[in-house]
Amino acid sequence: MEAIELLKNKFGVSQRYMYELKDGDETILEIYWNPLTIAERESIVSKSADGIAQSNDEFALNLMITKALDKDGKRLFQDGHKASLRREVNASALGEIQLAMMNSGSEYKLEEAKASLKS
Questions:
Q1: pTM greater than the 0.85 cutoff
Q2: Closest CA to 101 of 117, 77, 84, 72
Q3: CB-based contacts of 11: which residues, under 8 Å, 6+ apart?
Q4: How far is the C-alpha of 59 from the C-alpha of 7, rounded, in Å?
Q5: Of 27, 73, 102, 105, which one has the greatest count of Cβ atoms within 10 A?
């Protein structure tokens, strides 16, 4: 098996992660996402006002808006929600989601890519 196939199978975009945002014992929202690719990261960075530099908060918010999905794979947020999220939602709740997304490790892994290739 070639190195590219090994990487795609183990770390490819077919991986899926899930995080439950809770208030006490109550699950408020389930957020799903696939791994961030270099192309997506470049796209998120380009959404900044000057297209070059973003604060960590702006990058994390754009990451969440871009990558957050529901269980059926539909986007939870649209680009137009950014202002409302920034002004009307507690920063710690958003930070919790964003941190989970940026630390996409085995703790949040929902599905693993199949390691075998079809001949």
A1: no
A2: 77
A3: 35
A4: 26
A5: 102
Residue-range domains of the chain with CATH = 3-111 (3.30.2220)
Predicted pLDDT of residue 115: 39
Residue 82 region, left (φ>0) first, then alpha (ψ -120 to 50), else beta?
alpha
Instruction: Using alpha carbons, list the distances in angstroms from residue 8 to 40, 68, 92, 101, 105.
Output: 16, 21, 33, 19, 16
Tens place of pLDDT for every residue, the chain, 119 residues?
A: 799 988 888 888 888 999 999 999 999 999 999 988 999 988 888 876 665 556 888 889 999 999 999 999 999 999 999 999 999 999 999 999 999 998 876 555 555 444 333 43
The one-letter amino acid at 34:
N
What DSSP state is assigned to residue 110? E
**DSSP for 11-50, written as a single string:** HSTT-EEEEEEEETTEEEEEEEE-PPPHHHHHHHHHTSTT
